[in-house]
Amino acid sequence: MKKAFLLLLITLLFGCIKDDDDGTNDSLPEITQDGKNTFGCTINGEVFIPKKEQGSIFDSSEVLEAKYYYEHYYTAEGYTLNISSYNDFTRKGIYIFLSQGAEQLQENMTYDFQEYSPNNINGRFTWINDPNTQNSQGEYYTQANSGELNIIKLDTVNKIISGIFWFDAIDYYGNPAEIRDGRFDLIYEEQY
After folding, report:
1. How many helices (H) and strands (E) does the chain have?
2. Is 180 part of a structural domain of the chain?
């Protein structure tokens, strides 16, 4: 009985050790095409890796998500790509988005980042200063011809999308953010 109690106590103690590695000292993931669910880039020279902070067992928020599908609504239709990545420790996020793309994305094609509008690929970098309110304190958006997204692999059978990217973005006040050495290798979801 004492051994079982001691084992339970040790398990509880080690289970409560907080992982405070924010990922900024990590290396960027390798560029792969296997659906390894990896994402990384640098933001103004600092490594960005999506990471989830240990928290409540009821917290189901995702830090890395990819969706790619064809949408058909009453007045709008086209291909949608939505890649979102977030780091709970640094409270920074990188997002890549395409809405109402007229044509399906193609492997070995390079697409220019543009301003947000239908049929344009755009990027966004955000950071949250106050985690209690979740208000974005910095939102940086791509402009016309402000970066490139190269789709290395698009496997619609196994739902794998892999690519490399870079972009420049500016906030409302004209302050710049440089997103470089971006890479992702993701299993995407289809949404209907």
Report:
1. 1, 10
2. yes
Residue 159 lies in a domain: yes
Mean pLDDT confidence for 5-9: 45
Give me the phi and psi of 3, to 5 degrees please. -65, -40
Q: Is residue 7 in some structural domain? A: no
pLDDT in tens, 47-100: 999 998 866 444 546 899 999 999 887 667 889 999 999 998 888 999 999 988
**Element holding 3 (H helix, E strand):** helix 2-15
9 part of a folded domain: no
Query: Which range marks the domain in which residue 164 is found?
Result: 23-187
Show the tokens assigned to 96: 């890549």
Q: How many C-beta neighbours within 10 Å does residue 148 have? A: 16
